[in-house]
Amino acid sequence: MVDEFRVLRSTFSAKYGLVQGAVSYNMRSGTNQLNGDGFYINRNSIFDSAGFFPTAFGSNGKPAAPPDQKNNYGGTLAGPVMLPKLYDGRNRTFFLVSLDLYSKDQASTAIGTVPTPAMKTGDFSHFVNSAGKLITIYDPTTGKPFLGNIIPQDRIDPLTKAILPLIPDPNSTETVFGQVSNMTPAIQSEPFTTHAWGVTLNHALTSSQNISFTWWHNFFSTVIFGGGVPIVPASNELSSIQPGTDLSNVWLFNYEKTMTPKLVMTAGLAVEQKTQGYDNNLKSVHFPGVSNGTTFPEITFDGQNAPSGYGLQKQFVGPLCSR
Question: Per-residue pLDDT averaged across 221-229, rounded?
């Protein structure tokens, strides 16, 4: 639909006013001849390698290429507006329509860190750094090390005890003796879909006057992970999955009048509408982040061999709309 665009950063013409930057578009128009084009682009993981740090494995236990399926297809059609026995738009009225459909199913390759089964019981006797040296755990009430680097069960907070069963056990041994980067993604792929289309109509009122109308439409759906690495399944309360949609429409109206060979007058109107609808995958948890909330609060860790975070920082409650 766009025939030409320019990005202006400095030395603006007076018609742009006092702006910091501007982007100008010239829209394509139909011609007296009906014409069109089409395209198709495909990417498939069967052409990919497993990578240096594989996160997916086949039934034989060997590394496999992670999912990465992409399909992109569409085209354009343009010509004069023709209504049989009613209207012949050649030399006066033209149309152009475009379509762009895109879908992607890409692997989640981020590696997470989870505590070992012993750590979840308070046993940090094998909690070491990359050099194999024990990392001492101190009692926050006395400032002294816990005996044997083991936290007594009666010192573990009840809320912590309720959360620990939700944390999965490691399923790989990567670095620092299996204590870091020891959990592969529980969500194997992230879907993304886009449907975009546009329509342009041009009409010559007279030899010196033209009007045009353009409608851009774009819709996409995706899944985001608000808390970081997706190392727990979607049904787990610690999940940070947020499926969402984004809908945009832009309507452009333009009038052009050639006053003299050196003077052209234009007048235009642009209207934009945008709606975002992101929601939390889970509608009910035992420990919401906010009053009457539906998601687990965001939990983060720091320090040596820090585990991955969980939950959501933002609590989406419904669609957001702007015009």
Answer: 74
| DSSP symbols for 301-322 | --STTPPPPBSBSS---S-EEE
pLDDT score recorded for residue 228: 63
Q: Number of C-alpha atoms within 13 angstroms, CB side, residue 65?
A: 11
Distance CA 254, CA 212 (A): 5
Helix/strand/coil for 300: coil
Structural domain boundaries of the chain?
Answer: 31-115+167-322
- Fill in the DSSP letter of residue 69: E
What is the spatial distance between Cα 302 and Cα 113, in angstroms, rounded to a whole number? 12
Name, in order, each residue with C-beta under 8 angstroms of 232's C-beta and a sequence gap of 6 or more. 166, 167, 168, 186, 238, 239, 310
pTM, 2 dp: 0.69
Chain segment 71-106, per-residue pLDDT in tens: 999 999 999 999 988 999 899 999 999 999 999 887
